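Q: Convert this sequence to structure tokens.
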Amino acid sequence: MGDDLGDEWWQHEDACESEEETEQEKQPTEKTKTETKPEKRKRITEKTVKAKKKKSEQTECVTAQKKETEDEKSTKPKKKRKKKKTITEVLATSEPKPGSPADLQNLVTQYFSDKRSVIEQEELKLQDSCFLSSNDLTHSLSSYLKQVCPKWAKIQKQHTGKSSVVLLIVCSSALRTIELIKQLTTFKGEAKAVKLFAKHIKIEEQVKLLQKGVTHIGVGTPGRISALIEKEGLNLQALKYVVLDWNWRDQKLRRMVDIPERRCDLTRSNWTL
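A:
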């Protein structure tokens, strides 16, 4: 006797085997799916690495080109800039010429060209009769003053006013002032000379010195002279001669009018006009 289940036993075994095979087939497919994912990542990373390599190669090419252009520029000869000549270089090559009335007149017109009208500038022009004969570079200070002031002894005796001078000598510095006073010994006689510069001397002291006694000759710088006039420490009523130390040159071969500060003080002073 036996049970009849409607299915034969060998067919059942075949079905089980087929199910097992299908399960085994499914498992490797799933594995392959999981295995394919890192391959995609690898491809992405490879692409990024290649792109970075391309960028680095491009930057290297650009830097190499820049270096080449810089090397070319360095090899090219540079244009030399022309240096401006200084006052000392210009004056060293030029021959010394004595000052003239035209030089002073040109200096005044240049200074007031943008400060006054044309009519006012014409009023500033001085006649030739206002000027003494200039030094031709052969005279010393004493010999030149003897030439232009032949009646100095009489003029000296007639002057009795205080806070005033008869002769005013304008120079560029305090040291030059002392040198000129020493050179006046053969000319001045019994006349009294006073130093009018700002170095180590207060303006109040100079005002008191001028008020004490009679002074005949004043030697100093244009800045201090104009300051004394503004403070009414120096009176110009008795003034007859103004001498400019025009031709003298310092160690840098500069004249008084070549120094900007002295030139400005000289041209803007009221006593020169």
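Residues 64 and 70 are 10 Å apart (CA to CA).
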